[in-house]
């Protein structure tokens, strides 16, 4: 029967073998030394408290010993002692903001229309992402990722108009004359209508009718979510003269063009010749009747 091994010796031999192998591999397994944070000696001259830790109020005009007495740190005479220099004041010369203004002043009355071109619409139709058998509004364009980030509306442009071969019925905020010509040549139709910035957000959320309002003459058949007879909000109509005149113009395919009578133009200021002549005739007849003796 072989002699038994001492358990303590066996364990000590294993530990010694591990330590020896570790000592052999130590140069190859050495960890990179950790970089100790170091600071330059120059910061010793600029040591100070945190700004929030010092809250002593400076008392001005309380004698020369305080360092802020007499003139209170403002010096003698002049505009800077008696008052304050206005912001942008340059000693009386014409300000640089006037002589050399920055280009592109902000126009608060401009609108930011998101452009959409005809070739992109045709590409989306070919991929099956847009249904040409139904009216295409900004809601369908945004949902299909055909456009992104609508702010004040959508404008239809004519790039790639010769590629359009599918008749579409599209409702947008504005449309160029070339885009209208291409769409109608393909057998489709363009309808421009007014959207306020708030209406754009609500249309994209699906809580407002994307095409029909109170002044719409022929309702556009659009799919209504939930209750098929009611939307959460009504689509607004234009209130400013500029917008009303734009959507009264048949050349823009505006949805208010039905309001024009025969011979009338979209302008709310200039009247048609027939209306002006009839008004002048009424005035002459009134003057003639007033001059009669009996």
Automatic annotation (TrEMBL):
Ranges for the Large ribosomal subunit protein uL15/eL18 domain?
115-190
- Gene Ontology cellular component terms for the protein in this record: mitochondrial large ribosomal subunit
Keyword field: Ribonucleoprotein, Ribosomal protein
A biological process (GO) of this protein is:
translation
Question: What is an example of a GO molecular function annotated in this UniProt entry?
Answer: structural constituent of ribosome
Pfam families named in the record? Ribosomal_L27A
The Polar residues compositionally biased stretches are 45-55
Region Disordered: which residues?
Answer: 31-92
Q: Which SUPFAM superfamilies match?
A: Ribosomal proteins L15p and L18e
Domain of life, per UniProt, equals Eukaryota
Q: Which residues fall in a compositionally biased region of kind Basic residues?
A: 71-83
Query: Does the record bear Ribonucleoprotein in its keywords?
Result: yes
Family, per the entry?
Belongs to the universal ribosomal protein uL15 family.
Q: Which NCBIfam families match?
A: rplO_bact (TIGR01071)
Q: Which PANTHER family match?
A: 50S RIBOSOMAL PROTEIN L15, LARGE RIBOSOMAL SUBUNIT PROTEIN UL15M
**Name of the protein this chain belongs to:** Ribosomal protein L15
Q: Record the organism.
A: Saccharata proteae CBS 121410
- Highest classification ranks of the organism: Eukaryota, Fungi, Dikarya, Ascomycota, Pezizomycotina
